[in-house]
Structures are given as C-alpha cells and as structure tokens.
Amino acid sequence: MAGRRTDTRERIQRVALDLFVEQGYEKTSLREIAEKLGVTKAALYYHFRTKEDIVHSLIEDIGVSLDEIVEWARQQDDPVRAREEVLRRISGLIQGRFGPIMRFMQDNQPALKELHAGHVLAKRMKELFRFMGADESDPVAQLRARLALVALMVGNNPQFLDENPTAASADVALRVALELASPRPGAGT
Amino acid sequence: MAGRRTDTRERIQRVALDLFVEQGYEKTSLREIAEKLGVTKAALYYHFRTKEDIVHSLIEDIGVSLDEIVEWARQQDDPVRAREEVLRRISGLIQGRFGPIMRFMQDNQPALKELHAGHVLAKRMKELFRFMGADESDPVAQLRARLALVALMVGNNPQFLDENPTAASADVALRVALELASPRPGAGT
DNA sequence: GTCTATACTAAGATAGAC
DNA sequence: GTCTATCTTAGTATAGAC
C-alpha cells in the first residue's frame, strides 16, 4: 500500500498461504513461516501486526469479489439465470488466483470463525448458499441448488479427487454445478 | 472396558465432543474440558493418556463402521445398487449416534490429519469417494457420483443449511444423494 | 479415582540494537 | 528492514499426595 518495497511482504503472503493450505492455519507457526523464508519471527512482525493480520491480507480481495457477486445476484429478477451466472463467476474465481485461498477457507473454518475477517467471510458464503436455494420451495430442490455451489468447491479440493485440481476438474465441476442448479424437466412439485 | 465405573470417562467424551464440534479441535484445550466438567486437567489424564487419545476413543467406532461399509461395497458386483446401499448406510450412521462425530470429522481434517487415528479415517473416506466414482468413465458422471456422498455430509452440517440438521434434513439429503448416484436416463456417454 | 503442584515446551508478541 | 533477546501466556503432560 505505501512506498518502500522489497517484496518481502508478498513473499510472506505466498509462503504463509502455502503452509496454511498444506497443514492448516493453527498448525502453522510464525516460526515456521520465518524459517522457510530465511528470516526471523521479528521480521514478520515488521510487515504484519499479528498472525491474524496475515490471514486478513490473504482473504481481503476475495471477500470483495464475493461481496460483488452477492450484490449482483440480489438485483437480478430471473432466478434461474442468476444462479447460473453466480456459479460461473465463482468458478472463475476458483480458476483464477483464488483457488488456493478458497481451499484454505473450506478446510479451516473452525480457525477462521475466530478471526474477524474470517467471520465476515463465512457470513458472505452463508448468504450465497441461502441465495442459491432461495427460490425453491421444495426442500429437495433447495438442497440440490445449494449443492451446486458445493460442487465447485469439491472440484477444487484434492481431498475428494484422485489427483490435484486442474483446469479440467474445475470445468467438470462447473458442468455438474450448472446441471444441479437448472430446473428439473420432469420433476415433481 | 474394565470394572470400576463412575462414568467420568463417558462424561469426558461427551463434553469433549461437544466442544470439539462447537469450536474446533485445536481451539479446545484440556483446561476448558476439565473446567466444564468440574474436574482438573490431571483428572482427564487419569482416564486418557493424551488429548489425541480422547479423539481416538471418539472416532474408533465410526472407523469400524466405515470399514465394514467399504469392505461390503467392494464385494458387490452390481455397482449401481452397491452405491445406493452405501449411501443408505452412511445416512444411517449420520442419523444414528455418529452425526456429531461426522460433522467433527468434516470440519477438522487439518487437525485430524496430524493424528494417527484421523489419518486412518481420512484414508477410509478417500476409499469411499473413490468407490463411489469407480464405475464411471465420464468425469462428469464420476463427480456427480462422488457428490452424492458429499450431499449426505452437507445435509448434516448447519454451515450449509438454514437451521440445525434434523431427521428431515437427513432424509432430504439422502433423496438428493440417491438421485445423484443413480444413472441418468437420457444422458450421454 | 481424583486433586495440587509443577515441569516443560512452544506459541504469539515486543523492545531495542544494528 | 532485520536481528537478538526476552516476555507472557497457554498448552500438554507428570509426580506424588490424598
């Protein structure tokens, strides 16, 4: 944000995100991050006030993006098309630079819940889930619509796949998601 | 297992599981568990050798159940029916006494991965996911089949719902799961 | 079977030198 | 901007009395 610059701040963010994704937020100590960077803990504290601050800087941008999507979705009046477009946009975020962060969010909610920034983010996600099912009165259809969003996350998480996520797996996930979100041709209610 | 009996051991398990589900494994300290029980930390150590041991005792039974399901599934030769039955059985576990434990597992994999018992459990789950998609050559159909399993977990997790999980939401989840796992009538490949 | 007291470790964080 | 040194707090775990 300011003027100085030696890219250390960004290196910290990169290394921290790697470790957070790999072994979880709580299991990752500042000592570990510092060692991997070849600096001391104190150096980290020059760039970030707290450990929480590092996370905050990591999820800041995606928070804004999600917010925009939620806002946009609210203003649409064709719910089916809106849902589809939401899925496409979220998929775009995942395939863009936010894939690892999304995985981090998904795997570490207990930790994130305790952090202010994480709490806000969780609320956004909850709004998104609510939006996805909002126009369905049938509970089955509602869960199906919400599951569409989950599909995108599953397609981005090696825990559920045979291999690491790729552009291909993200694409497959989007297909499944759109299918789930679209109205059933011959279904009940 | 032995003879003495003052049910303290079971009370520890109950309180620990409550706190683990509520605030996560890492965030829950032994001091906290002890306080809520009205005993001291040392008392916990009489009943369990370590914190990890408490978790181990909690997930022991469900590990056996999952193992049985995986074994059974392997021996079937009608893949469609086998998948359906797997879903029904998992749903049964969730609706039975394992609901909270399942949620705990789902929310705390980064922590569980580090524990031996959790690591074993994660492998079982991975085998289940692989089994669900094993007979599908089309990647889309494969992800759909795996998502069936996820649907059951989503139906058991308030994070994705409007309210706390109930028998009704579990039933809805099972419907959606079975639908996802059954072959498409008019689909490609 | 449970408690008091305490050891040990590692975490996050700060002060002040360079 | 990074270091050394240190503080504080909290965690898991143990020894030994009751």
UniProtKB/TrEMBL annotation, chains A, B:
Domain of life: Bacteria
SUPFAM superfamilies: Homeodomain-like
Key word Transcription regulation present: yes
Organism: Amycolatopsis thermophila
PROSITE patterns: HTH_TETR_1, HTH_TETR_2
Domain HTH tetR-type: 6-66
Biological classification of the source: Bacteria, Bacillati, Actinomycetota, Actinomycetes, Pseudonocardiales
Pfam families linked to this entry: TetR_N (PF00440)
Keyword Transmembrane helix appears in the UniProt entry: no
Name by which UniProt lists this protein: AcrR family transcriptional regulator
Record keywords, A-Z: DNA-binding, Transcription, Transcription regulation
DNA-binding region: 29-48
